[in-house]
Design brief:
The structure is a homodimer.
Chain A (H helix, E strand, L loop, with lengths): L2 H10 L3 H12 L6 H17 L4 E4 L16 H6 L7 E5 L3 E5 L4 H8 L5 E4 L8 H10 L4 E5 L6 H8 L6 E5 L2 H5 L12 E2 L2 H4 L3 H14 L4 E4 L2 H8 L1 E2 L11 E6 L3 E5 L6 H9 L3 E4 L3 H5 L6 E4 L6 H6 L4 E4 L13 H35 L5 H13 L4 E4 L4 E4 L23 E6 L1 E3 L2 E2 L2 E6 L5 H18 L3 E2 L4 H13 L10 E3 L8 E6 L17 E4 L2 E4 L3 E4 L2 E11 L2 E8 L17 H18 L5 H10 L4
Helix pairs in contact in A: 1-16, 15-16, 17-18
């Protein structure tokens, strides 16, 4: 047994108090008592009376439109008691309503008990949307003052609210947290570090030159950067202010002859300052961003309205703002050669850990079943997390590990909780979706592991999911092809079984940045308001079809695909995918007769590569197991 | 030999004069001498001087935005001498320029010789578009009067021209043909006939009720129908005013309490008038359309700006016009049960004729080669056309037959010409793309026929095309899926060979209407300005991938697919396709090792059906041949 495994067994032997502490760290705050939240809503209402505000909207947001947010910004959670990652709270003099989506209906119902807040199940047919609710409230009145923190609403949302002006609405900027939140957690501000060229691939001055060229081509003067991962990429820096995202809270500004990075000066050392200066970037204090940009006048400035907040937009109001997707200027979604090489290397290390985990969890469950000891979903996740965190160059997880056993696998966004975690038995599927942040790369991988006996239907479904995942990864396509064109390849074997998975087939993945990164995706819905660019060599996208049968089981298989050039000829430039993820499939769950000759070839070649790479780094027992599960079909 | 075959041999024995006459019927007018066109352009310029017009634009168009147009409207051809189906002529005091696309570059170069008209090859990189040319002409001047026939430009084009107003442009409405065209052909006006319910499936009053319901749902008062096939479908009538399209020149208007069909009264008999009256439709004289509609005021009227001409739009200017794709109101693209049944029946008759043609052409070529007699592409097309025209219920061809031998097959829109027609030899591929109009249905089918020995590359390419065609036809998909999602299924085996076809994979097909019918299509480009609705049960769409190697050969295989419901369950409503076309594939060109088990199954089942349906209706020799070519792979 190697050192990793000793660490895991240590974690498994934690006592209850420690486990609960860890759990609380993993799952956010404990459920507040509803009455406490009732009181908090009342404090909010008193503030509303004083400031003559008729309705308050509290979004789940930070100042940068981030997907994950710092505790400092969780006002919606503080007020309502609902701890899910997505939700909007609206409070009027008489009503308090919370919207959240299907992932959280049950949880929200529990957590809102006694708070006097009504749950609106977003997405269900006859449930009004937030804006519809607000509109109908406003329509009954002559005039309405709506309170919202302009720093915490994007321009996209602001425009929606502005649409209500003709109904007598005035949007009032209020610092809601300052007014009502006692003991608000401090903002997380950790050191910012510079990524050397051997990790970033391009110097900052190279990147600035490219951005300036594109600004000129599109006849724009400047770009104001608000999305944190865009800023990190542009200035070759990273931080750790937001969980799962190696980003620092910051703003960026680039025009033809200057470039500014606004960040917390306490987090920047002289080395960073000097390096940025050498690259043509001036460091400025984060809190002075608005002071600086309000002096800009008469410029054509590119902004991303999904991450630009309304307060900053107001600071820029003397300019001509253009809402454009930032990927046109900041091409961080096209990974450069260095980023691609690092991604390949990191996936080998990440994959080795997950492969060893699969061996161990199967063994633990089997032995546990024999010896009357047990391990649950939560402990399995902890074990994997620790194996991953011990990898050289690891910088944390890229999202909260999903470890879902049996029927829990059918809950797409399930994450285990120590208190309600299912015990693993030597039968059925364990679905594990996990990933890490590494120096230079981000991983995201799902394997569905058979812990013992599985049924015929499970095998047929597993094989259909695997066929779809393989067919998409094997696509050859002309330049100009989009994710919407290829989605059918993954979905087809599942649709042929008259089943479906109700999520996209894949999302872009960052390079040591967010695990969900735009602009490309695999999906079949063609969205008018959210067009995506064609696939290009250098994009990294997940390929993760699934089948989820409520109350029975869930299957998902996910690899990351790197788009690469295949051939250019008189017909055009052909692209394809290299599979980055290297973790064996569940051969016990494959029905060989369902596979085409090509699919068998793909599986066998993949397994041969895995055995070649991992077997020299394994103990004898592990190696024997790997040899068996990667044997040819 | 049956009567059909005697007719064909008669056609083949026509003398030269008759053949040229037939050819001229098939291919439009003879090439005009360039000098004659120079003279015509001069007459146009004299008119321009008199009317103080600086620039004239002549589009290829009728008053209804039709794809094929009547001789009466071919002013661009009359002026320029260029006989292709697509082109735009711009004449100024000094210059005359013609735009046409890649299909016609060589032909246009020939036909424009000596006319003084310059050819602009539309679509090539540095060639300005019509509007760019006009804009740069206009920019050099203080003010410009542009002459165009407002009846012959769509509102879409009108809006483009209106965009030049700020540059001092005035668009002047001129009846160009009246001013310059001597001996202009009369408009074709043939009798209009009523389609009985057993062919149309729905009564006119049913259709009007549906249209009114949709108008109400979308808060509109009326729809003004300008697309001829929309009008035919709505009023259950047909005509024969435009070649290959069973349509009558007409307008239609439907509001909540009235419905009008504007048509040439000389073409309408009392039976038609009575029937329409019974269904709630008033017949009015076509030439009085504008007189009638100019009285409409203050209504919200739905129009289709691709077929509404600028003159008619002006007549409606007292109303609020909304440009909406007509398929939202006129759901002719969703074939009803009767239309589907008739399509199936007609495809059996049409397919039998083409199957017999394949047998005969192979035999003729083989025997001709032995006996020193020959048959060319053009004669082969004539033979097939005559076989098809003799089918009971046939109402003509649905487009000009493509019969392309050898390297001509690589020219996608090739149609044979008696003078330049290639002789068929007992080797290589003959690509035949053809179709017919029938009582209740329209067919469109392509087969690539091996006339003798073919190379290994040809077989590999043929099999790739067949695999693609089969994979698309075999798709199972959820409601909400679009043509852009499925296109990859047809293209994939071809892209895997690093080849491509530079056209869409399929187009909608009418029911006894236009062979090209919107709104759905199979293509992979996602066009912002041309969104298409999801696939629905009842749509008929072609599935026609290909491979074209310049100077070598062309392969295309085309079946029509009827979208049908497969299963509804908790995941949604699943759809699939029934293949309507029934003509054997070229088994000599199939490489069985390239096929999946499923593809083999599809081919074998298809061929068994064909043998079962056609063998009882064949001569002994034909039947023996069919038995051999439909034997299992």
């Amino acid at each position: 047994m190697d050192i990793l495994f000793r660490k895991v067994t240590y974690m498994l032997s934690l006592n209850t108090v420690e486990a609960i502490k860890y759990n609380s760290f993993r799952n956010g705050k404990e459920n507040k008592m509803g009455s406490k939240n009732k009181e908090r809503i009342n404090i909010l209402r008193n503030m509303m009376i004083k400031q003559e505000i008729d309705l308050v909207i509290v979004y789940t947001a930070d100042e940068h439109g981030s997907e994950y947010i710092d505790e400092h910004y969780k006002l919606r959670e503080y007020l309502s008691g609902f701890t899910g990652s997505a939700g909007t709270l609206v409070v009027t003099g008489k009503e308090a309503v919370l919207w959240t989506d299907g992932r959280y209906f049950i949880q929200a119902q529990e957590e809102l008990k006694g708070s006097g807040i009504e749950l609106y199940k977003d997405g269900l047919p006859h449930v009004p949307k937030v804006l519809e609710y607000v509109r109908s409230f406003v329509k009954k009145r002559k005039s309405t003052r709506i309170g919202a923190d302009l720093k915490l609403i994007s321009m996209k949302v602001k425009h929606e609210l502005d649409g209500l002006k003709e109904l007598g609405v005035e949007v009032v900027d209020v610092d809601l947290s300052a007014s009502v939140w006692k003991d608000r957690p401090e903002e997380t501000r950790n050191p910012i570090y510079y990524l050397p060229d051997e990790i970033s691939g391009y110097t900052v001055s190279d990147k600035l030159a490219q951005i300036r060229k594109r600004l000129e081509e599109r006849n724009m003067d400047a770009i104001f950067l608000t999305d944190l991962s865009d800023i990190m990429w542009t200035f070759n820096v990273r931080g750790s202010d937001i969980r799962y995202s190696p980003v620092a809270v910051s703003y960026g500004y680039v025009d033809v002859d200057s470039a500014f990075l606004f960040a917390d000066m306490r987090c920047c050392d002289n080395a960073l300052r000097d390096e940025l200066k050498r690259q043509g970037v001036t460091l400025r204090e984060y809190d002075d961003t608005d002071d600086y940009i309000r002096w800009l006048k008469g410029r054509r400035i590119v902004c991303d309205y999904t991450s630009l907040n309304a307060h900053m937009a107001e600071m820029l109001s003397g300019n001509e703002l253009t809402d454009e997707r930032s990927y046109i200027y900041i091409r961080k979604h096209i990974k450069n050669k260095t980023e691609c090489e690092l991604a390949k290397d990191c996936h080998i290390e990440d994959g080795l850990a997950l492969t060893k985990f699969i061996y161990r969890i199967k063994k633990l469950v089997r032995e546990g079943a024999e010896e009357g000891r047990g391990i649950n979903e939560f402990e399995a996740a902890m074990m994997l997390d620790n194996m991953r965190l011990s990898i050289k160059g690891n910088r944390g997880l890229s999202f909260e590990t999903i470890s879902a056993y049996g029927s829990n696998g059918a809950i797409v966004h399930y994450s285990p909780d120590k208190r309600n975690s299912a015990m693993l038995k030597a039968e059925g599927f364990l679905l594990v979706d996990s990933g890490g942040q590494y120096e230079g790369a981000t991983t995201d991988v799902t394997r569905t592991i058979a812990l013992g006996k599985i049924t015929g239907e499970m095998k047929l479904d597993y094989t259909a999911v695997l066929k779809g995942m393989l067919d998409l990864s094997d696509a050859v396509f002309l330049e100009g092809t989009r994710g919407e064109n290829l989605d059918i390849l993954a979905r087809r074997p599942i649709w042929e079984r008259y089943k479906d998975y109700r999520h996209g087939t894949g999302h872009g993945v960052g390079a040591m940045l967010n695990v969900h990164e735009g602009p490309q995706a695999f999906r079949y819905r063609i969205l008018k308001d959210y067009p995506q660019p064609p696939l290009e060599a250098g994009m990294i996208t997940s390929d993760e079809p699934g089948i989820y049968l409520e109350g029975k089981y869930g299957i998902r298989i996910e690899n990351l695909l790197l788009c690469t050039e295949r051939k250019s000829n008189e017909w055009g430039r052909f692209l394809g995918f290299d599979t980055l993820t290297l973790v064996p499939y569940e051969t016990d769950a494959i029905v060989p007769e369902m596979l085409t000759a090509r699919q068998k070839q793909l599986i066998n070649e993949y397994h041969r590569t895995i055995y070649y790479l991992y077997s020299p780094r394994m103990e004898r027992e592990e190696r024997e197991w790997l040899s068996a599960v990667t044997a040819g079909i």
